[in-house]
Design goal:
CATH class of the largest domain: Alpha Beta
Distance between the termini: 46 Å
Strand content: 15-25%
Number of helices: 4
CATH architecture of the largest domain: 2-Layer Sandwich
Number of strands: 5
Number of domains: 2
CATH superfamily of the largest domain: K homology (KH) domain
Largest sheet: 3 strands, antiparallel
Structural class: alpha+beta
Helix content: 25-40%
Radius of gyration: 19 Å
Length: 166
């Protein structure tokens, strides 16, 4: 039996939703446990509910850890970049634009928040689209900013519920 190769998502994902509340299309859960130090960020293990993601977390050297492992900022940057890249490709396909070798680099900074003295994240997104005229590339990136849920989350916030469970 032949298997179907990898496919880009359908353009129907660009269709507008007209419902009253949030309508989930996909939901996943990742659980972090503390590992050797009991501290999820320093030595934790992140596992997805389907078992496809199992990552040892390590505190970066810049924050006093050993490095040599993945940290939450890297995971967030990867997720943000993948979402932005995918949204950009969907919008380019809908516009019948050929965009090859697109690279989306997302830099996530973890630092001190001057508002409350605690911590905050800062994000910079850099998009490279070889062979695409700059005005067209800028228009596509602006449209992607309006469409990508990670950009929307970073700018507008996200519905978040935090609860203690048994």
């Amino acid at each position: 039996m032949a298997t179907k190769g990898l496919q880009a998502p359908p353009l129907s994902l660009l269709d507008k939703y007209r419902g009253r509340g949030f309508h989930p299309l996909y939901t996943t859960t990742v659980t972090v446990t503390g590992g050797e130090t009991g501290h999820g960020r320093a030595s934790g293990v992140a596992r997805s509910d389907d078992g496809n993601l199992v990552i040892n977390l390590r505190l970066p050297a810049a924050l006093g850890g050993p490095g040599n492992g993945t940290n939450p900022e890297q995971l967030f940057a990867a997720s943000y970049a993948a979402c932005f890249h995918g949204a950009l490709h969907l919008l380019a396909r809908r516009a019948r634009l050929q965009v090859d070798n697109v690279a989306v680099a997302v830099e996530v900074g973890f630092g001190r928040d001057p508002v409350d003295g605690a911590y905050a994240l800062a994000v910079q997104v850099r998009v490279r689209m070889p062979g695409v005229a700059r005005p067209l590339a800028e228009e596509l990136v602006r449209n992607t900013e309006r469409f990508c849920p990670y950009v929307k989350m970073a700018r507008q916030g996200i519905d978040s519920v935090v609860a203690v469970v048994d």
